[in-house]
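User: Just a sanity check before I run the rest of the batch. Below are the structure tokens for the first item. I only need the designed sequence back.
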């Protein structure tokens, strides 16, 4: 049966520290995400963009910037993702900044509980995104979604799924991490997150890293990938608001995506933090679409099972 994919745009930079990620969905469309996926025999519907509040660009209040607006955007994302999953579709969230993952993954977790599936989240990112209002240096909510999903954050975000926490720390595997704030570092350690940082990848290679992150997947596992474009090295992906040197190379990123595709378990996807205002001739969007294509089975040769 042809896989039914839906594209859901969330054009906002409400949780970020730089403007521009609101243009990310359109940049991915300009990079031909829909026709490229369709070229692999996939059925792709573009549901357009969700609506939400504009970015007021205000300072943080009680440790959070734009909390009310972030909540509103995440509710819209949650409802759209959940509707797609309930319709038997594979939703791709086109962000937008990474705070939107609260709504996206809350919907995935809710759906998994309803259908009795296990959930595995792969968080591809330069950052752990495990800050709280008391340890954040900026108040930007795109640095807090993993903490919110694990039950640490404002009630409206923490309770967006049908239970608190939406996910347990052992449901999530972080890959490519190389920038963690000081207080956040202690909190990640206390919570016991599985973090495959760049040192781990340097020492063990991307193949071993992905083997560990994908270990134990079975027919009853829903695999969600949350792909922050700043996961990639800035030399190949300059179009992001938070550049951190030393990320995965093109080939390392391709191997990561190809090994995910090989599992056949990918069931939902976020693509976030693409910032065309900081890009060069849509280079980063083109690369993101190239990697998404690999997530859905593009390979150099026909592989034996």
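Assistant: Here's the designed sequence for the first item:
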């Amino acid at each position: 049966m042809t896989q039914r994919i839906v594209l859901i745009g969330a054009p906002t930079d409400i949780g970020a520290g730089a403007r521009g990620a609101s243009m990310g969905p359109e940049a991915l469309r300009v990079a031909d995400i829909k026709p490229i996926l369709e070229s692999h025999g996939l059925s792709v519907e573009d549901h357009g963009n969700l609506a939400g509040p504009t970015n007021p660009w205000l300072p943080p209040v009680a440790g959070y910037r734009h909390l009310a607006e972030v909540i509103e955007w995440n509710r819209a994302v949650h409802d759209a993702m959940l509707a797609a999953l309930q319709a038997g579709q594979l939703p791709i969230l086109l962000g937008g900044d990474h705070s939107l993952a609260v709504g996206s993954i809350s919907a995935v977790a809710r759906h998994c509980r309803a259908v009795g599936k296990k959930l595995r989240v792969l968080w591809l990112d330069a950052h752990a995104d495990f800050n709280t209002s008391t340890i954040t240096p900026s108040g930007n909510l795109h640095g807090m979604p993993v903490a919110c999903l694990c039950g640490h954050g404002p009630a409206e975000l923490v309770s967006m799924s049908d239970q608190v926490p939406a996910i347990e720390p052992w449901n999530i595997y972080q890959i490519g991490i190389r920038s963690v704030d000081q207080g956040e570092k202690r909190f990640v350690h206390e919570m016991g997150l599985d973090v495959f940082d760049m040192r781990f990848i340097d020492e063990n290679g991307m193949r071993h890293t992905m083997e560990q992150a994908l270990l134990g997947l079975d027919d009853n596992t829903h695999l969600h990938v949350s792909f922050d474009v700043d996961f990639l090295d800035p030399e190949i992906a300059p179009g992001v608001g938070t550049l951190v040197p030393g990320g995965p190379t093109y080939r390392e990123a391709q191997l990561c995506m190809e090994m995910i595709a090989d599992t056949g378990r990918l069931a939902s996807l976020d693509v976030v933090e693409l910032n065309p205002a900081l890009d060069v001739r849509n280079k980063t969007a083109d690369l993101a679409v190239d990697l998404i294509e690999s997530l859905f089975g593009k390979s150099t040769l026909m592989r034996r099972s």
